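Here is the promised in-class demo. Please do not try to memorize the tokens; focus on the logic of going from shape to residues.
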């Protein structure tokens, strides 16, 4: 794909922004300069999906609003129709003008991992990461696996969603990133809420993203909203610094190979004032869904399963968020369940 060189930019790589104040509860943050172009993409999404693109539209080359190269973090150049939605992204090609690496969505998701496109090289990830790449676990996750978390104090999907929405109230109208999205059970809720200008579902597991798409396509209303599926490494997020407003990580941090690197990346990509919300199991949870007994049936099908997950105390989670530059830490604890939140300072 032939791409035009991006003009030299005078924009600073710093996250520095004018001083802003959080809005009063029940109100949204003032619209930021330049943001209407992203909102306009939502109105045009249905037309993009339904109408064939002219050659002129298909050959538009622009710098992406959010996506960045996972190698050098340079904003990606995009060739194709605009918009952060499944039809537009599927018809687009992405390329880094700095390191010349190309990315496509030839599968139903946009692969923005460092190893995207490699032919010979491969990496073996920790067993707890590989477990969720299994087609079986991806299929079962929303069909009984996730419901098992209630035994440890998780309040259930509807209540968890509403709790997260309360934390995200100050950034209503912004871009939300649902990391380690799994089968997309919260992704779909965020997208259908109408609270956000765009929702990006991100996971390292190809099969989780495929399962996510299977659920999305069963709901026609989700095919024409600003919703994207991206494969990426949580420790190497393919987004420009200070580019997203909200990040959600549901029942995820205990599975990450390096939680500290991941939260540092989350802090990097959040805009000033942006909010991070995560849920996990507190340390030494009893009857957790990753116990030996819970995993015994899976062993018979997928082989040995390593159960060495990262469990934390509440103090450790707060310390981790603060060490990565997040402020205004708060939490909600129910037995072994914890929802915690931190904010990128202005």
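The designed amino acids, position by position:
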């Amino acid at each position: 794909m032939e791409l035009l060189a991006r003009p030299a930019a005078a924009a600073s790589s710093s996250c520095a922004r004018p001083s802003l104040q959080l809005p009063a509860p029940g109100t949204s943050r003032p619209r930021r300069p330049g943001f209407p172009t992203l909102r306009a993409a939502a109105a045009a999404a249905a037309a993009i999906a339904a109408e064939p693109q002219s050659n002129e539209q298909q050959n538009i080359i622009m710098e992406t609003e959010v996506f960045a190269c996972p190698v050098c973090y340079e904003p990606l150049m995009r060739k194709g129709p605009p918009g952060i939605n499944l039809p537009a992204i599927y018809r687009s090609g992405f390329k880094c003008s700095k390191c010349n690496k190309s990315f496509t969505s030839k599968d139903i998701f946009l692969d923005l991992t460092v190893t995207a496109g490699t032919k010979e090289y491969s990496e073996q990830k920790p067993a707890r990461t590989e477990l969720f790449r299994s087609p079986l676990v991806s299929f079962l996750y929303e069909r009984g696996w996730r419901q098992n978390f209630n035994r440890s104090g998780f309040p259930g999907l509807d209540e968890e969603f509403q709790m997260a929405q309360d934390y995200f109230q100050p950034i209503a109208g912004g871009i939300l990133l649902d990391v380690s999205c799994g089968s997309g059970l919260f992704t779909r809720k965020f997208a259908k809420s109408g609270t956000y200008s765009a929702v990006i579902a991100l996971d390292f597991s190809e099969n989780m993203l495929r399962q996510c798409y299977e659920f999305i396509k069963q709901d026609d209303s989700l095919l024409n909203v600003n919703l994207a599926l991206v494969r990426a490494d949580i420790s190497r997020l393919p987004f420009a610094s200070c580019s997203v407003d909200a990040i959600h990580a549901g029942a995820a941090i205990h599975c990450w190979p390096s939680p500290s690197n991941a939260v540092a990346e989350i802090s990097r990509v959040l805009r000033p004032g942006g909010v991070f919300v995560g849920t996990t199991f507190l340390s030494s949870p009893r009857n957790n869904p990753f116990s030996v007994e819970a995993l015994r049936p899976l062993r018979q099908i997928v082989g040995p399963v390593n159960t060495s997950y990262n469990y934390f105390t509440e103090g450790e989670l707060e310390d981790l968020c603060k060490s990565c530059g997040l402020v205004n830490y708060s939490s909600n604890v129910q037995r072994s369940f914890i929802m915690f939140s931190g904010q990128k300072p202005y």
